[in-house]
What does this fold into?
Amino acid sequence: MTASAPWILGLTGGIGSGKSAVAAHFANVGVHQVDSDQVARWVVEPGKPALDAIAVHFGDDILLADGSLNRPLLRERIFDTPDERKWLEALLHPLIREETWRYLAEGTSPYAILVSPLLVESGQWRNVQRVLVVDTPEHLQLQRTALRDGVSEDHVRSIIAIQAKRDDRLRHADDVLINDREPVWLQQEVERLHRFYLTLRGGKP
It folds into this structure.
C-alpha cells in the first residue's frame, strides 16, 4: 500500500444483517467501496474465461440462451454438493481477489471498503486493515430475508447454516454495529463510525 492509497475496511455480516444498507450509508458520505458480490458477477460475464470453464465443468445447460450464466441453476447445483462448491470457489476466488484489489486501489477517500458477505469464510479478512461486522439477532435475519426474498424462514436458515457462524465473524471484528433498530439510527451509527475512521491511519488509532 502506497502512502496515497486508502487503507481498507472489511465490511461483513450474515444474510439479512443489513450490511448492504450500511454500505449504502458509507457510500453516501463519500467512501469508495467495492462489493465482492458485484465483482463475482463481473468475472463470469460472457466472454470471460471463468464462464467458459464453468460451462465445460457443469455442461452447456448452465448457460442461458443469450450465453450468460444461469445463476439459479448454478446455485442449485452447488448448494448441497460441497465438492462442486469448492471447485467453483477455487476457480473464482483468485479472480475475484485480483479484480477486487484493483478497484479498491483506485479509491481516493482516506479509507475504502471491501463489502463481502464471505469476508471471514474466504480469508479476505487477512488482507484488510480493519473489520466491521454488522450483526443482528437471528430472528430479525429470518424475518428480513424471508420478506425481502419471498422465501420461507426454513430456506433462510439453510443459508445461514453454510455461512460463517456468528461467533466466528464477531471474533474477527474490530468494530461491531448491531443493526436491531430503526433506519435513522443505523445511518447515525454509520456517520459516527465514519468520523472515527477518518481519524485512523492504516486502520489503527
Notes: The chain has a mean pLDDT of 90. The radius of gyration is 18 Å.
